[in-house]
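FAQ: What does a ligand-bound record look like?

Like this one, built around magnesium ion:
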Amino acid sequence: MSTNRRILIADDDRELRGVLKSLLSGAGYRIQSCANGAEALREAAKEMPDLLIVDLDMPFIDGYEVCRQIRARDNGRTVPILILTASDSAEDIDRAYATGATDFIPKPINWTLLLHRVKYIIRSGENLCALYASEARNRALMRVMPDSIFSLTPQGVISACFAGANGLPGDLPREGRLDHFDRLVPAPFRSLVADAIRAVVETRQAATFDCARLVAGAAQHLEFRFLPYERGGILALIRDVSTRKQAEARMHALAYFDTLTGLPNREWLYERLGQTLTEGAGTSAPVSVVFINMDRFRRIATSLGQFASDAVLVEAAARLRATVAQLESATAQNLPLARFGMDEFVTWIPAAAASTTTLMVADALRKAFEAKFHCGTIDLDLTASLGVAQFPQDGADVVSLLRNADAAAKTSKALGRNRVTIYQQSMNNKELERIELECDLRKGLIEGQLTVEYQPKYGVGDLALIGSEALLRWHHPVRGDVSPAHFIPLAEDCGLIQALDHYVIATVAADLASWRRLGLTVVPVAINLSAQEFLNADTVEALLRATTEHNLPPSLIELEITETALITQPDVAKANMHQLRQSGFRLALDDFGTGYSSLTYLRDFPVDSLKIDRTFVSDAPDSSDACSLIRAVIQFAHALRLTVVAEGVETLDQLDLLRREQCDVLQGYLFNPALPAQAFSQLLPA
Ligand code: C2E
Ligand code: MG
Ligand code: MG
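The answer part, i.e. the structure of the complex:
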């Protein structure tokens, strides 16, 4: 038996009330009975019952009025109201329903049926109550949802529609005027909607698509989602995602575009070129990558400053963009263009049918730099070096393809700039490394990465400072310190050696002059001259110019030359040596023992000293051969009145040996390495 449910009975018939009460309380209900409508309303106000049984015909406040007032209360909307009536007029019964009655029971009452009626009417009242609560929850949920939600028949006809928090997006038609969902969708997207609805009906899987259109000049992005719904129907959701799309577009622009030139950036390039390669992998047409590297851009940046160099880059990007646009129509190909680095741009030909097309494109891009660049009041002549690499033969992925196209562009630079070079497999790593190093060295010289350091030389007797050797140092920002043994031969190969030797001459002269101005007692500095430069008349001139300009006695400068210089053109060498000695410079033969080591050179060429190569010094005193050679060289040199310098002295044993053999001058890590000018000057007596 149920229940603990509460039933409120209102009937002016005392007897009937009594029977009802005993019957229902016998069935487990809690009963409250009232003799009139007013009393019933008061009791309901205190606590709403689970069921009201109300007589229609009561004095003052009748059953209709009780119904009306109960229904008007917030907590009275769902409570079941059972009307008792002796009337069988259809009009009375209709009126009872209209004022809110749930059901009615005619008098005289069928008591057996009544109990069942009460039981089921209370249950359906509770169901109704739960339904109201769930609807209220759903309504609250809908209010915070940004979506507009529609339930559709499988044919796409709207059966119900709930606007989201923001109402329907944009100028979509309002609810009420709608019949088919089609009408909500901008015309170009109707077929998408039809497809999506069909897909959901057939597969019972969700379908989604986005569409965009212009509303009052601004892009509106709508997201459509279709979900399977009850009875074969569909739930359609429309959400305005314009704000999210705008934010995404901003993020995309920031992530993929270069703010200075407006061109896509390196990330974009990697992504898109990657896609092109994936697509191209299946076809036979190669993808050609063109790497564009502006010439001497850093010099412009250093000398003209940030604003001017930015303007040059913007102008260069605009010219490349315009050229690419022309080339696109000429080649009927889409040529993406991106800024790769500071002054580097990349484009690629997705399906380069013929290599002539690639060369035509690359050369047109090179020519884009031909007209002068106007930079404020200055007109600049600028050029670019270009490199081409092809997929798949020159690189199977984006990184190696770009690296090789870049290497080819660097070769263009090394070959004299303003040209296009096609990557070749034969440009092996060593060669590439050499080319890169060479470019770096040129740049390093301009950017002041090279300095001159001084390694002291000491007299063997009292170990007094009697001279120094100027040694070039290259502090590369990325490679670190690069040894001159590595970059001097390279500089000789690529024609940079003259610039380096002249730079050392000028620096040494300036340092000597500044030490003298400080009142220091300077000692001679030895400058290494490459064989090539020693044979060049310009070098003699540079030396004379430097000493004259700084008012230095040439005897303060000694020149270290190697045997190579003497062998290749002995006559020129001899003539230069005489001229230099007459001018007052001193000459030393460097690295003696490593080359031809003919003692006759010492007799035939006018040198003041010779330097025993450090490989012999380092072998001594353990190697008897090295010791014999050192002894023979010193004796012979002394016979010719030459000073003997031992370089690379590292140990006290070597020092003892060289002293015993009466070597004159010592140089090596035992005393000092090469020192920066400032540190070296502190060794000079005032
Ligand atoms: P080098 O003229 O024979 O210079 C002597 C080299 O021996 C220097 O190497 C010096 O740092 C190193 N050295 C000095 N004392 C010791 C020691 O005790 N132990 C050892 N293991 N090494 C010692 P660095 O500076 O690497 O120069 C190498 C070569 O590069 C020089 O040989 C010279 O041929 C060339 N070079 C250096 N500076 C110049 C320059 O300004 N112009 C030209 N044309 N060549 C230069
Ligand atoms: Mg030397
Ligand atoms: Mg040497």
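Follow-up question: can I read anything off the structure? Yes, for example: The chain has a mean pLDDT of 88.
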